[in-house]
Design a protein that fits this description.
Order of helices and strands: EHEHHEHEE
Number of helices: 4
Strand content: 15-25%
CATH architecture: 2-Layer Sandwich
CATH class: Alpha Beta
Bound molecules: iron/sulfur cluster
CATH topology: Alpha-Beta Plaits
Number of strands: 5
Distance between the termini: 37 Å
Number of domains: 1
Radius of gyration: 14 Å
Largest sheet: 3 strands, mixed
Length: about 110
């Protein structure tokens, strides 16, 4: 665990990252920087690929169909390192209480094109 983990601001499970599927380019900076192994790079599911904007589809094609995924959402401690590290501005944090019963760790912005 890096020294940066000491700067985390919330108890685990209060906040979690949400990844904008139209922006992510699978550069994995979030995977590298997160002190709690919240992210992994995985292959985009076909149904997710179909929901991308044209620009998102082109990005997905150019990056081998891979993107970052939130695999341990309850481990997040809201330090914000992933937000700072992502060169595509594809990550935001949201309160877990805001997404109860909602499909969760991804979003597609309308203004990505
Ligand atoms: S804010 Fe990002 S880097 Fe920090 S713990 Fe949560 S997922 Fe990991």
């Amino acid at each position: 665990m890096s020294n940066k983990s000491a700067e985390c601001k919330a108890a685990p499970g209060k906040y979690m990252p949400v990844i904008d599927r139209n922006r992510c380019e699978a550069k994995a900076d979030c995977v590298t920087v997160c002190p709690y192994s919240v992210f992994e790079i995985q292959r985009l599911a076909e149904d997710e690929r179909k929901q991308l904007s044209l620009r998102g589809k082109i990005k997905a094609w150019a990056h081998g169909g891979n993107q970052a995924y939130v695999v341990q959402p309850t481990a997040c401690q809201a330090c914000g390192l992933c937000i700072e590290a992502c060169p595509e501005g594809a990550i935001r944090l949201t309160s877990t209480s805001d997404i109860v019963g909602n499909n969760s760790t991804t979003s597609n912005t309308d203004n990505a094109d």
